[in-house]
Amino acid sequence: MRERIAPAGDATSPATGTAVRVWDPVVRLFHWTVVAACILNLFILDDGDPPHRIVGYVVAGALAVRLVWGFIGTRYARFSDFVPTPSRLARYLAALAKGREPRVLGHNPAGAVMMLALMVLLAGVCLTGWMMGLDAFWGEDWLEGLHETLANAILVLALLHASAALFESWRHRENLVWSMVTGRKRA
Q: Which of 37, 91, 112, 186 is 20 to 30 Å from 180 at the Cα level?
């Protein structure tokens, strides 16, 4: 069964719409864990110090749980529900360019691609961070550079993701940030 989608600017008022559970606790905990971890490791904690490494391992664990949850979790958490085909992504982007993108209860195709890209970058930064602690890679400048580049790419994409969430919140007249706190969206 496909989710209900409504065109941008749909006449349904947020006050009259029924709230439905979209984001389950695992998805929300993963999201906010990654947000907090990125803020800590990019701006607060010193690179390579034990707290920085611990936060990295927490992210690796959260990512592992989220990957499993992507196959066995609730409807909107499953990769099968939101990973778009190239043609579906192209149609969505074309509609977005015209200001006619549909409202989607779960991840829209562009948001799904962003989420997957962020997950790949998170896996890469976790892997390179772990590798830097191995004797085989001790002091390797290329590895440290790659780790830093991946972390900076996460920052750029996270800022783009947050901007897109704010834009979509405005376009569809619903607070997407708050829905990632409560788990609920307008039906």
A: 91
CA 91, CA 23: separation in Å to the nearest integer? 25
Average pLDDT rounded to a whole number, residues 151-175: 93
Q: Sorting pLDDT into bands at 50, 70 and 90, what band is 172? A: confident
Q: Which of 61, 38, 55, 53 is nearest to 150 (CA)?
A: 38
CA distance 151 to 112: 20
- For the chain, the domain total comes to 1
DSSP structure class, residue 73:
S
DSSP string, 102-145: EE-SS--HHHHHHHHHHHHHHHHHHHHHHHHTSGGGTT-HHHHH
End-to-end CA distance of the chain: 15
Domain that holds residue 140: 6-186
CATH number at residue 45: 1.20.950.20
How far apart are alpha carbons 122 and 172 in whole angstroms?
29
Within 8 A by CB and 6+ apart from 99, the residues are 8
**Residue found under tokens 């196959």:** 71
Where residue 15 falls among pLDDT bands split at 50, 70, 90? Answer: low
Q: Tokens 């006449």 map to which residue?
A: 11
Q: Is residue 1 part of a domain?
A: no
